[in-house]
Specification:
By secondary structure, this protein is an all-alpha fold. 81% of the residues lie in helices and 0% in strands. The protein has one domain: MFS general substrate transporter like domains (Growth Hormone, Chain: A, Up-down Bundle). Helix 1 runs antiparallel to helix 6, helix 13 packs parallel to helix 15 and helix 14 packs antiparallel against helix 15. The longest helix is centred in the first third of the chain and has 29 residues.
């Protein structure tokens, strides 16, 4: 069972702690910035600066993870995130929020590619859908706890949420130090193999489909991190606590559904999974655009989170299996980079569309998502017909987790 895979569980718990801290700030960051005099332009620039720096540093951080190892890069990223979060508490000029978000995006770029590459290393190709389903469940558990805790503690002052974010990132570092075990031989192998990779491998046909799906999916993320709290607060009359409840609704259903979505992705055609559950999400965007009550959004968030949890493990496992073993972190970095670029485009365009009419971003992003899902699934289906992808060869694809599990079987309680 994958729940006995120590690497998977260790990384998943670290991700949960990390995104609990990140989630604590989500409901209050833009409100906190506005309370310090930030204009709508500054708020949009904050989101854009984070996304563009995250985009720029995804591939370099992936290269470092392939060169130096996943674990050290994850720890360094978390430590720098904690340090940078402290600066929110001392800012007086609103323009500095843009600078801080840029720095935050740069150091945060290293965490996800490293963690996802580590999970890919530790699991067999036929189990990666389930592995990423479990990973997604822990990821969303963080966003369940984070906004809930952040919304509650922020009722007594916005700065409390930022202090909580610092603490949880430090907790994640402790989890990684104590529980993540990477064989020394594997670290050396990564260093030896971290050489120049041809573009034809980084942008192979199956991977290009994953990059496209990441881009269209993250368009709404750009709106989410910049304008969602303002939209809920100003146009739906939601309190800070209720904004946290909306994020909780998404997270609860995602947590429950993600492991089942992952198992299904290992048993069914991934292109079919992505097509069905991707297109089901499209009407939700139009409902958001038409909504005039926060409770409608809370209910649809819950349904959206569940549907997303059935689609995302299929995309993640497709990209993981299509990845060349000696460039996994770099490919994960590119995968995340295309997502971040989509988020950047989404943040810029949503600010412009929102200024025209606050409902307009939802209608536009819903339409673009539908087109992207259709094109991306067509590309993935073509790659499935052609046969196994580059990362699925038995000769190439010996997971690190198999080595770890062999050692654990020989000495069950050593660690």
């Amino acid at each position: 069972m994958l729940l006995r895979n120590r690497t998977l569980l260790a990384v998943s718990f670290a991700v949960c702690a990390t995104f609990t801290g990140i989630g604590m700030v989500v409901p209050v960051r833009t409100l906190y910035a506005r309370s310090h005099g930030a204009s709508l332009f500054i708020i949009g620039a904050m989101a854009s600066s984070y996304l563009i720096s995250n985009f720029l540093f995804q591939y370099p951080s992936g290269w470092l993870a392939d060169r130096w190892g996943r674990k050290p890069i994850m720890m360094l990223s978390l430590f720098l995130q904690a340090v940078i979060t402290v600066t929110y508490l001392i800012i007086t000029d609103p323009i500095y929020f843009v600078v801080v978000r840029f720095l935050e995006g740069a150091v945060a770029a290293a965490f996800i590619p490293s963690s996802r590459a580590l999970i890919t290393d530790a699991t067999e190709p036929g189990k990666r859908g389930e592995a990423f389903g479990i990973y997604s469940a822990f990821f969303n558990a963080g966003f369940l706890l984070g906004p809930a805790i952040g919304g509650l503690v922020a009722s007594s002052g916005y700065s409390s949420a930022f202090i909580g974010a610092i603490i949880f990132r430090l907790v994640a570092i402790v989890i990684i130090v104590i529980t993540v075990r990477v064989p020394v031989k594997s670290k050396m192998t990564w260093q030896e193999k971290a050489m120049r990779v041809p573009l034809s491998r980084l942008f192979a046909f199956p991977l290009a489909a994953g990059y496209l799906l990441a881009f269209v999916d993250y368009l709404f993320v750009g709106f989410d991190i910049s304008l969602t709290p303002l939209w809920m607060h100003d146009h739906l009359g939601a309190s800070v606590a209720m904004i946290g409840v909306a994020y909780m609704a998404w997270s609860v259903t995602s947590i429950v559904a993600a492991p089942f979505g992952g198992r299904l992705a290992d048993r069914k055609r991934r292109s079919t999974m992505i097509l069905i559950f991707g297109l089901i999400q499209v009407p939700f965007y139009f409902i958001y655009g038409l909504a005039n009550m926060i409770m409608i959004v809370v209910v649809v968030f819950a349904l959206h989170g569940m549907t997303y949890a059935f689609a995302q493990p299929a995309i993640d496992s497709h990209v993981a299996t299509a990845s060349s073993p000696d460039a996994r972190a770099r490919i994960q970095g590119l995968y995340s980079a295309f997502g971040m670029f989509g988020g950047f485009v989404g943040a810029i365009s949503s600010s412009l569309l929102y200024a025209v009419n606050f409902r307009l971003p939802f209608f536009v992003f819903g339409t673009v998502l539908a087109v992207g899902i259709l094109v991306g699934c067509t590309l993935i289906r073509r790659s499935e017909v052609r046969g196994p992808t580059m990362g699925s060869s038995k000769k190439q694809d010996v997971p690190v987790g198999a080595q770890v599990q062999t050692q654990e079987t020989a000495i069950p309680r050593q660690r």
